[in-house]
Amino acid sequence: MPLLPPPAHPAVLALDLAATAAGCRTVAALRRELLPELCRVLGAHLAIYHQISFGPVFQEFGVVWPDEESVVTTLASYPSVAAHSPLIQRFTASPGVGVSSIGELVSARQWRANPVYRESHRALGVEDQLAVVLDVQGSGAHAITLSRSTGAFSAREHQLAALLVPHLRAAVLRCLDDPTPYRVAETVPVPRWTSRTGPALAGPGRPLLTSREAEVLALVAAGLSGREVARRLQLSPRTVDKHLEHVHAKLGARSRVEAVALARSGGRLPGCGGGAGRAPDDPGTAVAGTSTRP
Fold this sequence. Notes:
Protein name: Regulatory protein, luxR family
Radius of gyration: 20 Å
Structural class: alpha+beta
Organism: Auraticoccus monumenti
CATH architecture of the largest domain: 2-Layer Sandwich
Number of helices: 13
Distance between the termini: 49 Å
Helix content: 40-55%
CATH class of the largest domain: Alpha Beta
Number of domains: 2
Strand content: 15-25%
Order of helices and strands: HHEEHHHEHHHEEHEEHHHH
Number of strands: 7
Pfam families: GerE
Mean pLDDT: 81
Low-confidence stretches: 202-207, 271-293
Keywords: DNA-binding, Transcription, Transcription regulation
GO molecular function, one term: DNA binding
Shape: globular
């Protein structure tokens, strides 16, 4: 029997998928090229790019691959049970960019007893679901979910998805910038198809970073070292480091350079340059903004 080649390293697979993501310029291309490739590599049968608002009125828009019509019909009851979703509970309790799956949050028995599974996801054959959260703004989020009908997503697949976060986020941002209308499923109050350009969830949003985190990152972007930022803001170097750790986690960045680039692309970097004044060090205070893009 011939020996099978070893599975490709997640970093190698991530490079290939990043190249696919980089080639997407429209939401239609994202659906046609990126979502099926994610399914192929990660062993999923269903992929949805979501734009979600959790309150005060639940709203959800989805770009679905492959079977749009049946998915929208099946998800008709989803809004009434969405609050029971282990993934929504996970990212509501701890907002931020990241990767998680139902299989790592609850047991198979618990999932099958969950109202989300019973009312909608069982009909779609969703035995496990991997959520890649690309952006969180106030009560809203941009995410891609990948669903499979057999087996749980592995630690290796979680690692691959985590490597892809900045590339997927950049692709979504670029696609939403394109003026070409795209077809999107609106699941509430009743399932229907609609056409959108840009973000489906319009209106003012709140950026992900707190005022202090944005201020620290702006000073780093201006070329100040961590110690210089600490002196400027009258903070300890350790506090500055903690703020930057939170920034990295929220943006899905692996370095200060990447964090600055992601914040700039999302319009979250205030123009305080090197002369920002002291802002309240309140982790619950977010910088006001109007962008609803990821």
